[in-house]
Amino acid sequence: QEGNQEVRRAMIEAIGWPRYLALTQAHPVHTDATGELYRVRIAPNQPEHGLVVVTNGTPEPDGSHKRYGLYVSPAHRTALAAIASTYGLTPETYHPARRT
Question: Which pTM value belongs to this model?
Answer without folding.
Answer: 0.84
